[in-house]
């Protein structure tokens, strides 16, 4: 979503997303048991990574214990535990909002924030009524007296958007963070709103990984300076990766396999395929420290880039 209305997302990436969406839609309804397992995993991953981006020190395994077992982790603060449980509850809320086809408006935004910051902020669910500064930020958020008007404009623009849903989702996240309507919790709410917008339009939820925190803030700063393109492509890559995860449910040529195994059927080494994955040329996803791809993706790579 730009002033020129020209596409911000790279054509090849957008084409790949649309092709995967077409395949995913043709396969619906998805296997119920597999969808539930993947849903629970995405809920956990979103909660962990979204909190870690903001400095929460719970590990992924600790976050799983807090959410699934109600475990209290020694040496971790009450706030960090609340951030985990609150974010997971808010994740459930956005799915309920999307399923009930409720719009993104002041009410839903404040409901999400109230859950995210429950027991943490006295002002949970309320737009800020003071001015704030963000450490390390070049620009100061708008004066508090302009918040309602700016949020009115954002809600209207999103509801009337005619641009690609992924591009609109990126615009929503950046613009929300820039307005900074709450005293705290804006980043977490922004990422939840992005998923609400995508999910309500048939896309799977996405996870923005804490390992890419540096890129995330760098691209947000670029968007502040007027270049939304890098951030839009960052969000698009997360959508592409999420679609790959959902398509892998069906196994076969879409099953995700370690590059070490896939390399055996190619003239390339695992290291080379990992390089192409890091470059975004080979369609692959990184889980932990390992890269995974599918036979379909490798075949497409060989067809387009393979040795002649």
Could you please describe the fold and organization of this structure?
The structure is a single chain. The protein has helices at 11-27, 32-53, 60-69, 78-99, 106-116, 147-159, 165-179, 186-200, 213-224, 229-247, 259-262, 270-278, 295-305, and strands at 257-258, 285-287, 290-293. The protein is mostly helical. It folds into two domains: 11-250, Fido-like domain (Fic-like fold); 253-308, Arc Repressor Mutant, subunit A (Orthogonal Bundle), CATH 1.10.10. Strands 1-3-2 form a three-stranded antiparallel β-sheet. The longest helix is centred in the first third of the chain and has 22 residues, at 32-53. The radius of gyration is 20 Å and the shape is globular. It starts with 10 loop residues before the first helix and ends with a helix. 36% of the residues are buried.
List keywords for this structure.
Arc Repressor Mutant, subunit A; 3% strand; 308 residues; mainly alpha; 2 domains
In short:
The chain is mainly α. The protein has 13 helices and 3 strands.
User: What is the CATH fold-level name of the largest domain?
Assistant: Fic-like fold
Question: What's the CATH first level of the largest domain?
Answer: Mainly Alpha
Level of helix content?
55-70%
**Helix-strand string:** HHHHHHHHHHEHHEEH
* Poorly predicted residue ranges: none
Going by CATH, the homologous superfamily of the largest domain would be: Fido-like domain
